[in-house]
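## tool: complex_structure
## caller: assistant
## args:
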Amino acid sequence: MILFRAILFFLIFITPLKADSIYNLIKIPNLEVYKIDTKNGLRYLYATKPFRLGINMKKNINCYNSDKKILDEKYKVIKKNLDKYSLNFLKRINLKYIVLCENLSIAEINTAGIPNNKTRTLILDIKFNKIYFERAIHHELFHIINDSYKELFNKNVWKNFNKKNFKYSKCSTCNDNWNLDLLDDEGGFFTGYAKSTASEDMAEVFSHLIFYKNKVYSNDPIIEKKILFIKKNVLKIDNTFKF
Amino acid sequence: MIVKIKISKSEKIILIFLTILGVFTFTSLIILKNKCLFVKNYNPNNIKFDNPENIVILNVECGNVIIELYPNISPNAVKRLKKLIKLGAYDDAAFHRVIEGKLIQAGDLEFGKRENLDYGKVGSGKSGLGIIKSELDEKFKYDRGSVGLARTFELNTEDSQFFIILQDEPLFEGEYTPVGKVLYGLDVLKTIKFVPKFHIVPRPDFINSFKMLN
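## result:
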C-alpha cells in the first residue's frame, strides 16, 4: 500500500511541466513567438522542436521545426496573405494563432494546414507545395470560417448546386484525386480536390475567390452559384468584408 | 609558573577552519533559511491611495502584497473578487500553481484550502458562485505584477482562481481577464514556494488573509 501511494504521488507530481504560456493557450508544445504585435491581431508562432498532437493516445498530427531562413521567407508570404483579413473578421471567425512548422501531416498524410477554431489556431506547413502555397492559406482559413459558422455553410444546400448524379467522397482523403490544378472542364468544380467533400469544395471556391480576386471567371453556372453562395454567407459574418 | 604556550601553525589552521565552519553553519541555518529576511513588508496604513475602495491586501508569510483592482476594465470580475474577499473565502487558500519567476496562482476554494487540500484535484475547484464571462481587454498590458482571473482552456469559465505574473507576458493580452495590478510587494510573491518541474506545488504556501483596505 505504501509503495502504491508512493507511485501515485510520483505520477501526480512528476507530470512534465508544460508551463509555457503558449502551451497553456493553444495546447501545442515546443512553440515560440515569431511575431505577435500585428495589425489584425494575428499571433505568429513557430516550432522550435518537432511536435505531435492528437486526442488521448492517438497523436497522429506531426510537424517539424524549420530553418530560420525558410521561416523568415515564408512568414512574409503568409503575412501578406493573411493581412487581407481584418481584426474584426478574424475575431468573428475565431482565428488568432498561426503556427509555422514544416512537413505537417495528419495520419501520415501531408497537408497544407490544420485549422482548429476552438483553439483559434491554424497550423501551416511552410514547406507545402510552392505553387499552391498561398492559395492553400486561404483554403485552410476557410475551414476555420466553416467550422465557426456551420449553419451558414450548409452542406446540403451546397450539394444541391452540383449535378444530380454527382456524389462527394466520404472524406477528403478517401479518393486519389488531390489535384489542386485548375480544371479545364470545370463541371462545377475548380479543382479535382474540390470533388472530395462539400467543405473542401467550399474551401476551394473561397480560396480561388480570395487569391485570384476578380480574375476568377467562370462560364460554369454551377461555379457561379457556388461563388454567390460563399460571397453571400461570408458577408453575413462581416458585411465589410472585401473579396 | 604559568608558561605561555604558543599555538602551532596547524592549530591556527584548525581554528580558522572551525571559525569558517561556524560562520557557514550560522548563515545557512539562520540567515539563508529565513526567506523573508530581505523582503520589504509594506504597511498599507502608511500609504496614501487614489482609489482606496479598489485596494486589496494579500497577506502571505513574508508580508503584504498591495493590489489595485480595475473595475473600469473588468467590472464583473472585480465584483466577483471583491465579493469573495469580503467573505474571507481566500484565507488559507493555497498557491497551488507557482512557476519560478513567471507566475503564481491561487484561489481554488474547493480543493485548495489548507484544511482540505486535494492534490489530485487542486486547480479544478470552484467557488460555488458559478462561472462568469471573460472580460478581455486587448489594450491591457500584461506586464510584471498584473493580476488576472484564471480560466479553463475555454473562455467564459472564470470563477475564483486568480494569478499574478512575475514577468511581462504579452501573450496574455486579450486572453485572460485582467483584474488589477500589484502596487507594492511584488518581491513578497517571489518568496512563494515553487518546486521546479512540478505541475502542482507539494506542501504549498498559503494565503494568510486577503482583505479589502477599507
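## assistant note: The radius of gyration of chain A is 20 Å. The first helix of chain A runs from residue 2 to 13. Handing back to user.
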